[in-house]
């Protein structure tokens, strides 16, 4: 392995080690009873098993919850039936790019699925952590009267909604009870997931359901046939639905919750999520209705009332909260409107709190190469924002966790407060950032800032004590915004609007919404942008990103061939000088200064510059690092296969995942985040290491002494050790390393043939330098002036230090 590649490996490994060593911790709000593992955020919030007792409403999406309490002395809708609603669609004909599931308990978002289609009709962004077939999201709960899973929601355009029965019925409906999928009987939501674990997209399965047709009639048994699809990317989801990438400690909590932040002089206390008399906002029931416009826009309107019994405890009068979510076809934007109305008889000073999204996809957190513009590093989920004063900022999820563990009494990370300057409160955007996707609040289309907010803080949505070591980067994070305090007259209301972007980190798309800084290439962004653009051009020609990466590597290495050739020539000179340098070392082994001067004199005599081999390496480093970052960040590589979409290396943005071995290896080796290698055996990184060692063995000069031999052994050992760090490198990066190494081997072999014939230095029988290759003997056998100078410098020895002669007594004269 040449010095260029070796230095690149060292830099990459050093960065990766620093990245993996970041530790951080945070605690959930101390006054909220939260389950640490895959449960809903509050102890009053039903778990999977508890939902059954409150989920038997027959209301379908679009109907109002009938459980609202009209008595303004109480909090409206504190009891009732859980209902789920959807806006958007998975149906390609609708052209919607999002399918959003909301729940009336909490009046907020439970799930966002990205349903955009590509030019061939396939999902543009699917889940990459599973290859199983997708039937639909049901928010399923165990049925109470029979064995089965109750269907609480069916998204439009999902395979479940498009299924056909033998009796001519179309679509599984809300309220149906799934009792079997294929030959597998279904009793719990886990059974439903397991029944699909052996399926693939495109498979047809039979789904047996029980459907109630009337209050006095027995349920009808129906059998549907459903054509399974790929899993759409669930960009936002509850922690309990996180799949294999979920970690202990993350909490299931609805996204974009709303509650009152201030009533008169009473504010939400520092470090808490809500005013205690009003209760946990995720337990507040809202009435809901869904409307569809002629242009395909869908809006859900939600409303709840907080009566005098609760408001009186904090010195207020009844208040009504309204909010709406609107999605339009062909966009990732969700328009949100908020209204706070005073139902009392006196003016009130009111403000509301709006939480951000949480539960953003964790895909690949144990191998992702996300980096941060800050020295604090990045996690799988980070809070990002921009203000006029601070510019673009990233708050790592790992940092939030660390801060909460160190200061549990203050679990929130301040962004700005009511007493901050205007430039600090001039908020351009704020959101949650993942490797390839983001969910961010934006100002309205005709506004430049998110005005009307007096406070912003970041937080974790996790039980910090349950988050294991080495899994901190997967912690769940979110934020909140407090609106400015507004005096509202009786019977009046104040309103505010915010847009939310929920979609992929496509550079051009983000830039169109003012979110261009979400894509961060690092220090070599200029090179990354150029190389990324070239990669896309090559893909448009060859139609395969794996082949495009190989061609890009060839183009880059070919353009740098002159520099590489000079480096190879310099290495050849160094190898030829090795015996003479060894002699100098032996001669001056106890005189370091003399040895250095003698070596420099020798290099000067023969015209050898040791720095000439380093210059190409430094010139190539920005290009190599830029290409490395381009391949790490580019979302276009996500879910693009090496060859087959369903076979090995089906996602170039992830390790090739040749074989799952997580169940057969110890956690230290195969754990997600805790293991050195990860839960999959990967083939491409092994090929990379083999090629690195091959380069090293082929082109490293033979050892001339024990010290050099030991150094070479250490380099071989370090190359193997680097394989541990590169074992989880995405397949696209491995292809780059493989192509680059093969080019390097071929290049060095070619350079050897293109070097001038003979040696670069003429040596005598003892290996001493006689003259440079350019110095020729005269025909008459006499030496040239250059040759005589070389020989004179070679033969010149340091003058001996004068010593005092021995004084011996002259023997006395002897007489003859």
Automatic annotation (TrEMBL):
<feature type="domain" description="PDZ">
    <location>
        <begin position="122"/>
        <end position="213"/>
    </location>
</feature>
<keyword id="KW-0812">Transmembrane</keyword>
<dbReference type="InterPro" id="IPR019998">
    <property type="entry name" value="Membr_insert_YidC"/>
</dbReference>
<feature type="transmembrane region" description="Helical">
    <location>
        <begin position="610"/>
        <end position="631"/>
    </location>
</feature>
<keyword id="KW-0472">Membrane</keyword>
<keyword id="KW-1133">Transmembrane helix</keyword>
<dbReference type="InterPro" id="IPR038221">
    <property type="entry name" value="YidC_periplasmic_sf"/>
</dbReference>
<dbReference type="InterPro" id="IPR036034">
    <property type="entry name" value="PDZ_sf"/>
</dbReference>
<dbReference type="InterPro" id="IPR047196">
    <property type="entry name" value="YidC_ALB_C"/>
</dbReference>
<keyword id="KW-0813">Transport</keyword>
<feature type="transmembrane region" description="Helical">
    <location>
        <begin position="545"/>
        <end position="564"/>
    </location>
</feature>
<keyword id="KW-0653">Protein transport</keyword>
<feature type="compositionally biased region" description="Basic residues">
    <location>
        <begin position="805"/>
        <end position="816"/>
    </location>
</feature>
<feature type="transmembrane region" description="Helical">
    <location>
        <begin position="714"/>
        <end position="739"/>
    </location>
</feature>
<dbReference type="InterPro" id="IPR001708">
    <property type="entry name" value="YidC/ALB3/OXA1/COX18"/>
</dbReference>
<feature type="compositionally biased region" description="Polar residues">
    <location>
        <begin position="52"/>
        <end position="67"/>
    </location>
</feature>
<dbReference type="Pfam" id="PF02096">
    <property type="entry name" value="60KD_IMP"/>
</dbReference>
<feature type="transmembrane region" description="Helical">
    <location>
        <begin position="675"/>
        <end position="694"/>
    </location>
</feature>
<comment type="subunit">
    <text>Interacts with the Sec translocase complex via SecD. Specifically interacts with transmembrane segments of nascent integral membrane proteins during membrane integration.</text>
</comment>
<feature type="region of interest" description="Disordered">
    <location>
        <begin position="40"/>
        <end position="71"/>
    </location>
</feature>
<feature type="region of interest" description="Disordered">
    <location>
        <begin position="790"/>
        <end position="816"/>
    </location>
</feature>
<feature type="compositionally biased region" description="Acidic residues">
    <location>
        <begin position="40"/>
        <end position="51"/>
    </location>
</feature>
<dbReference type="InterPro" id="IPR028055">
    <property type="entry name" value="YidC/Oxa/ALB_C"/>
</dbReference>
<protein>
    <recommendedName>
        <fullName>Membrane protein insertase YidC</fullName>
    </recommendedName>
</protein>
<comment type="similarity">
    <text>Belongs to the OXA1/ALB3/YidC family. Type 1 subfamily.</text>
</comment>
<keyword id="KW-0143">Chaperone</keyword>
<dbReference type="Pfam" id="PF14849">
    <property type="entry name" value="YidC_periplas"/>
</dbReference>
<keyword id="KW-1003">Cell membrane</keyword>
<comment type="function">
    <text>Required for the insertion and/or proper folding and/or complex formation of integral membrane proteins into the membrane. Involved in integration of membrane proteins that insert both dependently and independently of the Sec translocase complex, as well as at least some lipoproteins. Aids folding of multispanning membrane proteins.</text>
</comment>
<dbReference type="InterPro" id="IPR028053">
    <property type="entry name" value="Membr_insert_YidC_N"/>
</dbReference>
<dbReference type="InterPro" id="IPR001478">
    <property type="entry name" value="PDZ"/>
</dbReference>
<dbReference type="Pfam" id="PF13180">
    <property type="entry name" value="PDZ_2"/>
</dbReference>
């Amino acid at each position: 392995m040449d010095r260029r590649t070796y230095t690149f490996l060292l830099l990459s490994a050093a960065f990766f080690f620093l990245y993996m060593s970041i530790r951080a911790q945070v605690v959930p709000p101390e006054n909220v009873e939260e389950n640490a593992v895959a449960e809903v955020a509050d102890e009053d919030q039903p778990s999977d098993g508890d939902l059954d007792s409150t989920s038997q409403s027959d209301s379908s999406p679009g109907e109002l919850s009938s459980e609202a309490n009209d008595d303004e002395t109480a909090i409206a809708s504190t009891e009732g039936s859980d209902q789920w609603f959807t806006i958007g669609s998975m149906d390609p004909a609708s052209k919607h790019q999002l399918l959003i599931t909301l729940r009336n308990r909490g009046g907020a978002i439970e799930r966002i699925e990205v349903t955009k289609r590509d030019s061939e009709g396939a999902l543009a962004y699917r889940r990459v952590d599973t290859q199983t077939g997708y039937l639909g999201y049901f928010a399923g709960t165990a049925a109470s009267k029979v064995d089965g899973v109750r269907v609480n929601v069916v998204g439009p355009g999902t395979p479940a909604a498009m299924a056909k029965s033998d009796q001519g019925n179309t679509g599984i409906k809300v309220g149906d009870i799934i009792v079997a999928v294929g030959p597998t009987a279904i009793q719990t939501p886990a059974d439903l997931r397991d029944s699909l674990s052996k399926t693939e997209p495109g498979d047809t399965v039979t789904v047996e359901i029980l459907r109630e047709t009337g209050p006095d009639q027995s349920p009808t048994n129906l059998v549907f046939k459903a054509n399974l699809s790929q899993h759409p990317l669930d960009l936002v989801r509850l922690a309990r639905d996180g799949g294999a990438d979920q970690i202990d400690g993350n909490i299931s909590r609805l996204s974009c919750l709303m509650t009152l932040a201030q009533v008169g002089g009473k504010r939400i206390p520092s470090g808490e999520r809500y005013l205690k008399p009003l209760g946990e906002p995720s337990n507040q029931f809202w009435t809901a209705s869904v409307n569809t416009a002629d242009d395909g826009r869908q809006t859900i309107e939600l409303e709840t009332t907080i009566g005098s019994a609760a408001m009186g405890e904090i010195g207020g009068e009844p208040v009504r909260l309204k909010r709406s979510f609107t999605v339009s076809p062909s966009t990732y934007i969700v328009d949100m409107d908020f209204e706070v109305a005073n139902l009392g008889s006196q003016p009130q000073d009111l403000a509301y709190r709006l939480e951000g999204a949480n539960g953003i996809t964790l895909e690949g957190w144990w191998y992702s190469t996300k980096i941060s513009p800050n020295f604090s590093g990045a996690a799988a989920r980070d809070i990002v924002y921009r203000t006029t004063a601070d510019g673009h900022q990233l708050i790592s999820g790992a940092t939030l966790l660390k801060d909460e563990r160190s200061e549990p009494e203050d679990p929130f990370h301040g962004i700005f407060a009511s007493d901050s300057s205007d430039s600090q409160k001039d908020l351009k955007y704020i959101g949650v950032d993942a490797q390839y996707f983001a969910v961010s609040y934006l100002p309205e289309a005709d506004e430049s800032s998110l005005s009307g907010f007096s406070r912003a803080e970041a937080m974790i949505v996790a039980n910090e004590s349950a988050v294991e070591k080495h899994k901190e980067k997967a912690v769940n994070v979110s934020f909140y915004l407090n609106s400015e305090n507004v005096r509202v007259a009786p019977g009046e209301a104040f309103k505010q609007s915010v847009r939310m972007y929920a979609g992929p980190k496509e550079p051009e798309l983000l830039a169109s919404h003012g979110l261009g800084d979400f894509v961060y290439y690092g220090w070599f962004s200029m090179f990354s942008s150029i190389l990324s653009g070239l990669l896309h051009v090559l893909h448009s020609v060859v139609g395969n990103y794996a082949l495009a990466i190989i061609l890009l590597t060839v183009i880059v290495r070919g353009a740098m061939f002159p520099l590489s050739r000079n480096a190879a020539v310099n290495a050849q000179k160094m190898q030829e000088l090795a015996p003479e340098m060894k002699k100098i070392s032996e001669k001056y082994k106890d005189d370091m200064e003399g040895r250095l001067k003698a070596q420099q004199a020798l290099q000067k005599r023969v015209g050898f510059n040791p720095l000439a081999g380093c210059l190409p390496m430094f010139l190539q480093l920005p290009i190599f690092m830029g290409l490395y970052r381009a391949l790490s960040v580019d979302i276009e590589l996500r879910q693009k296969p090496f060859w087959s979409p369903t076979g090995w290396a089906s996602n170039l943005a992830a390790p090739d995942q040749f074989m799952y071995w997580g169940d057969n290896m110890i956690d230290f080796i195969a754990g997600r985040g805790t293991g050195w290698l990860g839960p999959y055996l990967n083939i491409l990184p092994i090929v990379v290491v083999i090629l690195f060692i091959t380069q090293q063995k082929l082109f490293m000069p033979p050892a001339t002494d024990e010290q050099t031999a030991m150094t070479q052994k250490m380099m071989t050992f370090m190359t193997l050790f680097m394989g541990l760090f590169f074992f989880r490198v995405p397949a696209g990066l491995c292809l780059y390393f493989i192509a680059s190494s093969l080019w390097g081997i071929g290049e060095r072999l070619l350079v050897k043939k293109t070097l001038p014939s003979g040696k670069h230095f003429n040596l005598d029988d003892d290996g001493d330098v006689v003259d440079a290759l350019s110095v020729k003997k005269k025909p008459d056998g006499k030496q040239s002036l250059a040759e005589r100078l070389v020989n004179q410098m070679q033969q010149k020895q340091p003058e001996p230090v004068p010593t005092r002669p021995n004084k011996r007594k002259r023997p006395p004269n002897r007489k003859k």
